[in-house]
Structures are given as structure tokens and as C-alpha cells.
Amino acid sequence: SSDSGGSGFSLAATALPERRRPGGGRPRYEVVRELGAEEVRWFYREDRKTWKPFIGYDSLRIELAFRALGSGGGEPAAVEPVCVRSGLYEVDVASAESYPVYWNQTEKIPVMRGQWFIDGTWQPLEEEESNLIEQEHLNRFKGQQLQESFDMEISKPVDGKEAIHSLKLSRNHVDWHSVDEVYLYSDATTSKIARTVTQKLGFSKASSSGTRLHRGYVEEATLEDKPPQTSHIVFVVHGIGQKMDQGRIIKNTAMMRDTARKVEEKYFSNLATHVEFLPVEWRSKLTLDGDTVDSITPDKVRGLRDMLNSSAMDIMYYTSPLYRDELVKGLQQELNRLYSLFCSRNPEFEEKGGKVSIVSHSLGCVITYDIMTGWNPVRLYEQLLQKEEEELEERWMSYEEQRLLEELYITKQRLREIEERLHGLKASTISKPPVLKFKVENFFCMGSPLAVFLALRGIRPGTSGSQDHILPRTICNRLLNIFHPTDPVAYRLEPLILKHYSNISPVQIHWYNTANPLPYEHMKPSFLNPTKEATSGPDTESASAAPSPTTSPVMVRRHYGESITNIGKASILGAASIGKGLGGMLFSRFGRSSTATPQSLETGKDGAEGDDKKATTVGTPPLPHSSSGFLEPTVELEHRIDFELREGLVESRYWSAVTSHTAYWSSLDIALFLLTFMYKQDQEETDKSNLDSI
């Protein structure tokens, strides 16, 4: 209830006799009184677009803070910022601005208090005009009865009614034809002429050029109109090229969040929790070489050079021993900062078993992987040195060589002991693998070159179908690699675990509108190249598990789903960061043998279309294999890892190669894919705990 100072919700007013608008709108009161907090609606505006209303829960709390601000008796009261939009933003009522909590944004988001609204659109009138109209309305009509019912109002059209009250504004004027019929007229010359003409022709002034206004929002704000609690947070990590546009990851994450909201409303609206996406902008805080690279860049073709510097350069920085640690620490610290900040603002998140997943793009996948596993090139160097020592010990040596080698061995052991004692005295962070403050539930890689990095670090296929071969389940529960078939930077991970998966097609991601899609875990493997010789003899066990490569039909690309060119439109600005030929230049699919190229099956009619040039294989000596050239296919992956977007109908091959690397953010197919895995796990755990309690 309202107190004397005017702050607080005037919800007691709901006890007054009330009536609804025609068509069952918001309750209205019979006597003109000050607007209740629930009738006022607050709005925000992003990117200079139209005003968007805050949900009821947010609007009521902003209004409460606003009334507290004005109740200081002359001195403005100190008011805490109001947390809004699922906790991602705060509103400073005094400055009428909103700003993000978890990331930096140069542009502030203006907020506005809506009291009077335009008929039809329910857009608020500008605050200055709104305040003047409201003040005039209360001065003239406060305490007066409103009409008994809306039927009378409908039966008596406004045409021909004279204004009972009028208010002149700077560019407009407002006429009250009755307490409940208020019209805004523009005082521009053209409007005056139009009004004169229409009046001479017998049209009413009110209906011809006036805009009807409504006092109080169409929908009452209630505290029940609040967002569901966040049960799962997703950190979105950018890749290369962010130096060129530091705000891009924030825009991309906003696209992904908006798309996920649409999917949540359609498929997961019955759940009481939701998934929140937070951008991890790690690049802009780093100094790296200062501007040394810029200073040595020739001026010719400067635009293209800048683009290459800001994208290709990140890969060079990452392979540089001087800057690699700075990149790793930059991302690790930002992930930990965001997690700590989120938990401090949502204390129940950890108590209720909230989960964390990471979505990484491009080079971000490699850096995230290295943070999670603690991989370090120094360790690789130490392993190589150890191997050299072992080889040295195995060959014949003179007595003098043996004596010196023993002395070296004793000295190294002594050095290790001294180092350990020193570490004990002084806690040092040197060579400690980076640690995250949370367990990663799912690691989604998008357009990821991780596989080629791992291959060049010496990882080779094994004999077990476990994810542990490349990423232990103790570190991350599930690894999922998403890519568009023409993304020039993306590589497959499955053939690094089991070699024969290079001839098994990636799982096709369901189209967003597919009715009753088959769950991913029930999808059987299909072979990429059935003309290859069989992977094994007619073994009954394997024949029942998967179709034989000699009998399987050629996998025709399913030409339906969301066209990547349509997706590309939303992220065309992102495509610039990779450049037309950049992907091909940096990763000309080296290390990818012709057998592992799904692109060679672009169409069912002609298997050799497109990438028919044989790629030279870099890297691996042949592994022990069966007579057919593949490892025994009786071994299957525990879980599939490679998931491929379906290609659209109309896209050109080369066009999508340019846009596909950045087209993941606005894809409804990907949003559904991510949420399917996250909600499925949450549902399984809820079901399990329910069974345990029974």
C-alpha cells in the first residue's frame, strides 16, 4: 500500500471497484486517482530501436526504486541499482540508464517510465510530455467518476464531440473529449491544413488526425511475471579476429541467447528453469606486443593487412611461447571472474547443483581445451628431452661418457630436490596448469580447428572408443564438436579417437522444425564412402550394429533445414573477420587425408564433385591396422562427438565457405541442439533424484 511519501506499491487500490477494458484488458478503476505502480510500465531501448517493455517483475521493482528516489523530501535518496532482465543488466533509476553486469559496453541503454501510451502500438509517450499530460489529467479530473460501462462509450462514437479540456505542448496539443477519451494532435502545418479540410468535409476532428492515448499500460505489472531461475550457465568464448571488433562476441552471444529463448518458448516452456548465456571477452584486456606488429605492417592494402593482423595474428600469438601464456591466462581469469560474479549474485546456484557448459568458437576451442587439460608446450618439450636421454642411454658409450651421464643424472636429481624445497617455502605459480573454479558439464566446439592442433601435438587414434583419449570425462562430462560442412576452419575429432570413423559420416544436426526427431543417441552410424573396401569380413556382430559399407547407399546430403545463407545474413559482419581466402590460407585442410573429407560427398550423384584434389597427409606414420586398412570396426564410440549442420538448398559452395565460419550464432538448429543436451541431462538427474527419494 502507498505510504504518505508516495513510495511503495499501491496494490491496495485493487480493492476498489474495478472494470476491465473491452476484450478483457487491464482492470480499471471507477474513480480517477494517481496511477498505481502496477499501472506504470518501464521500458528500455537498445540499438536505437523501438522501446521494449520490461517484464512485470522488473517494472514493479524499478517503479518502487523510482518512488523511493522521490521520497527523500527534497534530497534525492540513495537507491540501489535494480537487477533486471534475468539478472544480466542493472538499472540506475537516477540516471535513467541500464548497463550490463557481466561485460563492458560503451553505449548505455536508456530506460523510460511509461504512463501514457499510444493506442494500438502501446508505445510510451516521451517522458516529458507524459508527465505534463498526467499532471494536467489529475488537476482536472482527480476524484471524478469514470463512465459506468464501456457499452455507453461504444454506442456513442467520439465523432462530433467537443473537447471538454485541452493542453498545449511544444509541438502537439492534447484534447480530452471525456475523462476516458484523450487524443493527441500534431501542430505541424500540414496537419493543420489536413484538419481544416477534413472538418469542412464533415469528418470529426478526433478520428481524422488525432492519436488516441491510454492512461496506464495495457497489462498490469505483477511480481509473478518473473523469469525462471537459471539452472545452467553457458560461457560463450570467442575465437580469432576479436581485436578488430571487441563488441562482436557480445552481439554474437546476444544473437545466440535470443535464438535460444525462442527455442525455449517452443520446446521447453514447461520447465521451471532456464539456460543463461554469458559472453567471455578475453582479448581486449591483453597488451601482447603493444603495437609492434602494426608498426612493421606495410601500408599497401592496409585494410586487408589489418584484417589479417587481427585474425591470423591470434593464431601466431598462440603458437608463440612468448604470448601463449598471456592468452591462456586472459581467458582463464575472465572465466573465473564471471563464474565468481555470477555465484555472488545468485547464491542458490551452487547450492541447487547449477551446471556450467562452455561454447567456444574457432581458436577459442583450442585455448579452452588447454585451460581445462592444463596442456603446456613446456611439458611437451620436457617429454622430448626425456625421450632423447632414453635413446642416449640405449646406445654404446665409452667409460668417460657413462661417468659424465651419471653425474648429469645426479645433478638433475639434486636440482629437482632444491626446486621442490623452494616451492615448499614460497608458493609459486610457475608451470602450474591453469585451473577453473567449476566443473565443465558440456564443451561445445563450433567451427573448431582443435583436431588439427591435437594431431600436430602427436595425438594419434587409439583402440578404445572413449572420449578420455582426448578429453578425460573427469575434466568435462561431454565433448561435442559442431561444424558446418563448408567451414574452412573446422576439423573432425572422432577419427582422432578411432581411425575408422574417418569413413563414418558425422551426425546430422536436426532441423529446428523437424517433427518428432530421432534422439541423437539412437541414430545409427552411416558410412561416408561405401565404394571403399569393407572394413572387415562379414562379422555378424558388427553387421547388426551398423550397415555394411558395401551395401549402404551413398549418403545423400539432406537438402532441407535452415539455409546457411539466411543464417549468414545475420552474421555477415562476422564473416569479414575471417576473410574470403583466409580460412583456406591458414588451414588448407592440411593433415586431412582424402578419406576424411566429408566434403567429397557434396552430392549423391557425383561423389568426386568439389574437393576431388587429393590432400597430402601430413604427420602420422601408419598405425597397426587390419587387412582392410582400418582398425577393427567392432569398436564404437561411447558417445558421438562430431555433429554437422545440414546444408541449405540455395547456398553457393564458395559463398557458404565465406559465411559458414561465423554463421553459428543465429542458427535455430544449433540453439535447439545445445538446449537439447543441456535440458536432457538436467531432466535425467531430476528423474534420478525423484527415484532415489521414492
Automatic annotation (TrEMBL):
Gene Ontology MF terms: metal ion binding; phospholipase activity
Protein family according to the UniProt entry: Belongs to the PA-PLA1 family.
UniProt protein name: DDHD1 Phospholipase
Pfam annotation, one family: DDHD
Ranges of biased composition (kind: Basic and acidic residues): 17-27, 603-615
Compositionally biased intervals (Polar residues): 528-539
Protein species of origin: Menura novaehollandiae
Region annotation Disordered: where it falls in the sequence: 1-27, 524-553, 594-630
GO cellular component, one term: cytoplasm
SMART domains reported for this sequence: DDHD (SM01127)
Name of the coding gene: Ddhd1
InterPro entries, per database record: DDHD_dom, PA-PLA1
Biased composition (Low complexity): 540-553
Domain DDHD residue range list: 436-680
